[in-house]
Design a protein that fits this description.
heterodimer, A: alpha/beta, three-stranded antiparallel sheet, 40% helix, B: Alpha-Beta Plaits, 2 helices, 4 strands, 30% helix, 22% strand
Chain lengths: 381, 76
């Protein structure tokens, strides 16, 4: 099988990730931050090293700014529900995943907030920024937006959006589900208030891991409270991060595996990973475009306006049927709506969805060539 | 010497404190706090056998929330 569904989760993982997890199960089996015995402290030490690794990748102020959660969706829920104010207004983009839209819609349905979806202009960041500016209201209390569309690969100018929002004293939460490990992200340089990222995609960690990186945790209300191993005599949730957002026992084997994944990314460097994947996707785009048999919805997915993923359709064929045909030929891709109906509505693909292709650091040009040939075979039928 | 255990708010800050102090050439060890009437709940600190006052100043300067100092009950 040639796996090109890396936007859903990367596969395979680097061997050091599974090795680290096996070692975690053998050597670091105690609950970190709960006791004073040697194995508990050793386990806590490993978790702290994972925080350091993540803080270095995202250029966070310190390891304490890194909170481990289950996945990017959980991180987004914690950030969104922790930052909104009753009667407040939220600005978001028209390309959001349901991990953003469903929490916003639930808050709107409860009468807690209103929100505005900003129309993005691919390839024109000035126009996109202007649209964000026009969406701001007096009661805007949060801007939450994706860094990269999980369907179209469109890269939003989140650095400029953050500067704009901060001029209005509005905190910004960035959904880095598709950009973490592929694009450079600096919390210190751009003052993002919250960075939400999955551990199992571009960071090559295991599923069930995610990151909520916060600049100032005391501004964010909690949606989950419980035991943290600190100040147990108090019934109040601790104010200090990361424990404030890590109630309950954390996923130690997953976090140790995630550390190995992030370490892999840092050694490889985000820049080289991006260059590799972008070259693969651009070549595929060129081949599909030249065939004139494939419906492509975006310009050539190159820097600085796109991240390396591509969605397409074959005219007259349903995206799910195309993905099933590709599966029969040994290619793993994802069709349908990709949990992002708003992004599909943006390009008019809400009814039929699209076929999404996303390489990883392990994908080769031979595999992409074989994939292009398979698409051509299906298109010719 | 007395009160060589510097109390911080969590295991994360205890580990960060230890890293910071090592950077300044001060040996420090993460320890769980013994229960006392004034601090009955769970907590962590760093045991700094030497230069404890200097260590506390460094931690405060680096933005670590130091909750206090305490006598260490058992020796390492």
């Amino acid at each position: 099988m040639i796996y090109l569904d890396n936007a859903a989760t990367t596969y395979p993982k680097p061997p050091q990730v599974s090795a680290a997890m096996q070692q975690a199960m053998r050597r670091f089996g105690a609950n970190p931050g709960r006791a004073g015995h040697n194995m508990s402290l050793a386990t806590a030490q490993e978790v702290f090293r994972a925080r350091e690794e993540a803080a270095a990748l995202f250029d966070a102020p310190g390891p304490e700014n890194v909170c481990f959660v289950m996945n990017c969706t959980q991180a987004l829920n914690m950030a969104i529900k922790g930052l909104v104010k009753p009667g407040g207004h939220v600005v978001t983009s028209c390309l959001e995943h349901n991990a953003v839209m469903r929490p916003l819609e639930a808050l709107r349905a409860q009468g807690i907030i209103t929100y505005t979806e900003v129309k993005i202009v691919p390839g024109d960041n000035d126009a996109t920024l202007d649209a964000f500016r026009q969406a701001m209201k007096e009661n805007t209390c949060l801007c939450v937006c994706t860094h990269v569309s999980n369907v179209w690969g469109i890269r939003l100018p989140v650095e400029r959006i953050t500067a704009l929002c901060h001029a209005y004293n509005v905190p910004v939460c960035i959904d880095c589900a598709q950009s973490a490990g592929v694009l450079p992200i600096s919390m210190k340089d751009y003052n993002f208030d919250c960075i939400c990222a999955p551990g199992h995609k571009g960071l090559y960690g295991p599923m069930g891991t995610g990151l909520l990186i916060v600049r100032d945790g005391s501004r964010i209300n909690t949606i989950i409270e419980g035991g943290t191993g600190t100040a147990s005599e108090s019934l109040e949730q601790p104010a200090e991060i990361p424990e404030r957002f890590e109630s309950g026992t954390i996923n130690v084997p997953g976090i140790i595996g995630l550390r190995a994944g992030i370490s892999f990314v840092r050694r490889r460097t985000v820049h080289r990973i991006y260059e590799h994947e972008s070259a693969l996707v651009c070549r595929l785009y060129d081949r599909l475009k030249a065939s004139q048999k494939v419906e492509l919805y975006m310009p050539r997915p190159q820097s600085p306006y796109f991240a390396p993923l591509l969605s397409f359709n074959l005219p007259g064929k349903d995206s799910e049927d195309v993905a099933a045909s590709l599966n029969k030929q040994g290619f793993a891709v994802r069709a349908g709506l990709h949990c992002a109906p708003r992004a599909h509505a943006f390009c008019g693909t809400l009814e039929h969805g699209a076929v999404r292709v996303c390489p990883s650091v392990f994908t080769t040009s031979e595999q992409m060539n074989a994939f292009a040939q398979a698409v051509m075979r299906i298109a010719a039928k | 010497m007395s009160k060589q255990l510097i109390i911080v708010s969590s295991i994360t800050y205890a580990m960060k404190s230890r890293e910071l102090l090592f950077y300044y050439g001060i040996k420090a060890y993460v320890e769980r706090l013994p229960r006392t009437p004034d601090m009955p709940g769970c907590g962590y600190g760093v045991y700094v056998p030497d230069r404890t006052d200097e260590a506390e100043r460094i931690l405060r300067r680096e933005g670590i929330h130091v909750l206090g100092r305490r006598e260490r009950v058992s020796s390492k």
